[in-house]
Design a protein that fits this description.
The complex is a heterodimer. By secondary structure, chain A is an alpha+beta fold. Chain A contains 14 helices and 17 strands. In chain A, a hairpin with a 3-residue loop joins strand 5 and strand 6. Chain B is built from 16 helices and 13 strands. Classes of the chains: A alpha+beta, B alpha+beta.
């Protein structure tokens, strides 16, 4: 086990096990809660891949998320029940890039961790239980259909991208999940749930050596199928698919989002730099500390829902800016003008320093949350970046670099608008 | 991890929890008011206007830039509703002073700014700055209209409103649209002055080295008069079941069942009710999750929550419209089963351990560590995590059954799409 220290000087142990699974153990002295997340690099983007002997397979939309639901069922009953006896709360989520299984507990940490590692290793799928799950997931998807934030975002990604699987909702659709079968679920399971494609992060106040021994013991019995994963991604043009999409919904006032396609940096420091630099740029434009925000807010064009963010991973990069507004067209013009103006004037080195302070402060504050720490670790690991490098990368950013990102990433030529209007 | 009380002024208490555990220092200020139809909208508007600017930082831009320079500190305000009280809440959150350069200076400036935000607003002609008042009045109105954007929250709110139409609890925490539209600047400013002078105020802080805080907070511009005595929560005993159906353009129907109970925070058997609610619908091992979701496959979410001050249990489920009767029947059966004593040892133990874990994990988060006291300040009886955990551990199956027998269905509310559609 290798010992590293975090920025707050907490000990972090790391080892890549014999079967290829990277394990991180972070000690948090004084914390009651203990947290573990076991994740696989398998999300909604992995919709097409090559399987030995079967050639290229395209799976129904929403299958990674469906599989996530199903792993909670065991022959002896529901996984929830077993965690309940430890007072642990167990959950899972699926994103574009990953599926994560997690729990937090105060007591019985070794028992709960054993349970987590065990149930993720043991799929129990029958035609009957897969059908039953379809009913539950259908209600989950219908709930999202009534959620305006999700709707406007989904429409925006469909406008920005032509073929990229990011267009697909993580959960798929009520129609697409009808095609999901036991065989398909198992095929995906065996391909993507193998230790070298996964990672485990545990955080809490415990003896790291004891925990590592437990993890190793649990991993020995795993009878996984080592296979090479060949993901297939369609060639996505640089241009946007549609410049504008509009939809009507039962909402109180219109919503406007502008999306901008970014440059894809596949991994490492470049990706990390891009993530922080572009988010700082948007902060300078769209946060409450921005004169642009002040002006738009005072003119009644935006409210506190207004904001901007940049998301980047090895397979995609895009920005979103907007919020609720009474006049989407007027807001559209104002935002485009503000972006053009910012690119012309550039960001001063004083402002870059203030933005760096802000980013660094948030990074420190985030160390209070075990959930945030564990999940950030996993996301960084899968992106080929390092959570521990964040402060160094923030500190190293220069005004020149930030302004270069400003010119490259805030490209109105590669933008699309998504609008929701009240019925 | 307990709080130590310091008296700041008449009716103003400061509770300090000094600890090195966190990477942050958090301060929250709660100003308590009665929830009334006359003042709800004004009380909701006050924090929104205050965050627009203070006397020495007259715009939200200057406030936001100041916070950024203080290493991304956060300063803000909101309104909460606990029982029949409306609470204005103000907060300041910074990176722990020992982790940043000039940390003590950041703390002093940040805390002084929080003090200004609450006690020293931007005043023009004896009232709030007119422009800020008008702008935030418009925003508050839109915020209230926006409830419809979250169908689940909207449905819960409509159900509560039907159930408590003659009780203060039936008022929305941000006020009603009609009251907001009628707000006058003089009235709101007077209400602000009244609250600052006479409302009970409780301040909580969690972080390292807090010894300077009592003096820093005493130095704020408090102008206290006599402290108001706020009325206790109302209770209704004559309960008649009612069914309400509302139609909206929704993909998924939302079922809300509001129940009254016979226990409240100050009742001796309150924790039996808390356990009963847990057995019924808080956890994935609870009866509602197992029977409505896992067995009948009717819902993705289904659960119950307890409002302890008023003693209300609210059950919600997102279902297909045609599943209405089946879902209502299953929920009734599950409540009836508990009333008949059908509670297994596993259910009882898992619920207790779940509740106790929840309380223990609150001490790992500064915000939760503070917020868990809100119910205590409203009911004028703060309880330590240990007291609460001991009380939960002592609850017996018979007590849970007895508490469950007090659960009475009051309002069954259903929000669904137009007939014939999904």
């Amino acid at each position: 086990m290798q010992l590293i220290r975090t920025i707050t000087n907490e000990p972090l142990y790391h080892e890549i096990l014999g079967n290829g699974l990277p394990v991180y153990i972070l000690q948090k002295p004084g914390f009651q809660k203990k947290y573990a997340v076991f994740a696989t690099r398998y999300g909604s983007l992995d919709s097409e891949f090559e399987v030995a002997g079967r050639g290229i397979v395209k799976v129904p939309d929403g299958i990674a998320h469906f599989l996530e639901h199903k792993l909670f069922e065991e022959e002896e009953g529901h996984v929830f029940q077993r965690f309940a006896q430890f007072g642990a709360s167990v959950n899972a989520y699926t994103s574009y890039n990953l599926t994560a299984y997690l729990f937090s507990t105060i007591e019985y940490f070794p028992e709960a961790l054993t349970e987590l590692l065990r149930f993720v290793q043991n799929p129990y799928l029958t035609a009957e239980n897969v059908d039953k799950e379809r009913g539950i997931i259908e209600q989950e998807l219908r709930m999202y259909d009534d959620n305006p934030s999700r709707k406007i975002y989904r429409n925006l990604l469909n406008a920005l991208y032509h073929k990229h699987p990011i267009r697909i909702d993580v959960g798929g659709t009520v129609e697409s999940i009808q095609d999901i079968t036991v065989d398909l679920l198992l095929e995906c399971y065996h391909l993507f749930y193998q230790p070298a494609n996964m990672a485990l992060v545990v955080i809490g106040d415990f003896d790291p050596h004891q925990i590592m021994d437990l993890i190793k013991a649990q991993m020995e019995s795993w009878n996984y199928q080592a296979q090479e994963i060949k993901r297939i991604f369609p060639d996505e043009p640089d241009t946007v698919c549609k410049p504008r999409v509009e939809q009507r919904m039962n909402i109180s006032q219109p919503r406007y989002y502008l999306g901008l396609k970014g440059t894809v940096h596949h991994s490492g420091r470049e990706l990390l730099k891009q993530q922080f630099a572009v988010n700082m740029i948007w902060h300078s434009l769209a946060a409450k500390s921005s004169p642009v925000f002040e002006r738009l807010y005072n003119s009644g064009l935006i409210n506190d829902s207004f904001g901007a963010s940049f998301q980047a991973a090895p397979r995609y990069a895009f920005s979103v800016i907007g919020g609720e507004t009474e006049d989407p067209d007027k807001l559209d013009a104002a935002i485009r003008e503000a972006i053009t103006e910012l690119k012309r004037k550039q960001i001063s080195s004083d402002l870059v320093e203030r933005l760096k302070r802000q980013s660094l402060g948030s990074y420190f504050a985030a160390h209070n949350s075990l959930d945030y720490l564990a999940n950030s670790f996993i996301v960084h690991l899968f992106n080929g970046t390092s959570f521990l490098d964040v402060p160094k990368v923030i500190e190293s950013l220069t005004a020149d670099e930030v302004n270069q990102f400003l010119q490259e990433e805030l490209d109105l030529e590669r933008s699309a608008v998504s609008v929701l209007l009240p019925e | 991890m307990d709080f130590i009380r310091h008296q700041i002024a008449d009716g103003i208490n400061l509770y300090l929890c000094e600890t090195d555990k966190f990477t942050t220092l958090t301060v929250k200020v709660f100003v308590q008011n009665s929830l009334t139809a006359e003042t709800a909208a004004a009380n909701a508007l006050i924090p929104m206007v205050l965050v627009q600017g203070t006397r020495s930082n007259p715009t939200r831009l200057s406030l936001a830039q100041k916070m950024e320079n203080l290493y991304g500190s956060a300063l803000g305000a909101d309104v909460a509703k606990i029982g029949e009280r409306q609470i204005m809440e103000f907060y300041f959150d910074m990176v722990a002073p020992h982790l940043i350069p000039n940390g003590d200076q950041v703390l002093a400036e940040g805390l002084a700014t929080l003090g200004e935000l609450i006690t020293d607003p931007l005043v023009e002609n004896g009232s709030f700055k007119q422009e800020y008042f008008q702008q935030e009045k418009t925003n508050l109105g839109k915020l209230v209209d926006g409830l419809i954007n979250d169908k689940r929250a909207y449905a819960v709110w409509r159900a509560v409103k039907h159930m408590c139409k003659d009780e203060p609890f039936g008022l929305y925490k941000y006020g009603e649209r009609e009251q907001i539209d009628q707000l006058q600047p003089e009235f709101v400013y007077q209400q602000y002055r009244r609250a600052l002078a006479s409302s009970p105020i409780d301040i909580f802080a969690v972080g390292p080295k807090l010894d300077q805080l009592p003096d820093m907070i005493r130095a704020w511009q408090w102008q206290r008069t006599t402290v108001q005595q706020l009325p206790p929560v109302t209770t209704k005993r004559d309960i008649r079941e009612q069914e309400i159906h509302e139609t909206r353009d929704v993909q998924q129907a939302v079922l809300v069942i509001c129940c009254r109970t016979e226990q409240q925070y100050l009742s001796p058997d309150y924790y039996a009710l808390m356990v009963a609610n847990g057995v019924l619908g808080v956890y994935p091992h609870s009866k509602l999750f197992l029977n409505v979701r896992e067995k009948a496959s009717l819902a993705y979410y289904v659960g119950s929550s307890l409002e302890g001050t008023k003693g209300l249990i609210t059950i919600t489920a997102g279902i297909a419209p045609q599943a209405y009767q089946q879902a209502v029947d299953i929920i009734r059966e599950q409540v009836a089963a508990m009333q008949a004593g059908s509670i297994t040892d596993d259910e009882l133990e898992r619920t207790k351990i779940g509740l106790i874990s929840g309380i223990r994990s609150m001490v790992d988060d500064p915000g939760s560590l503070i917020d868990r006291n809100l119910i205590g300040i409203v009911n004028q009886e703060l309880r330590t995590p240990q007291t609460v955990m001991d009380s939960i551990a002592a609850v017996t199956k018979e007590q849970v059954q007895q508490a469950a027998q007090g659960i009475k269905l009051d309002t069954i509310y259903f929000l669904s799409g137009p007939k014939g559609e999904n």
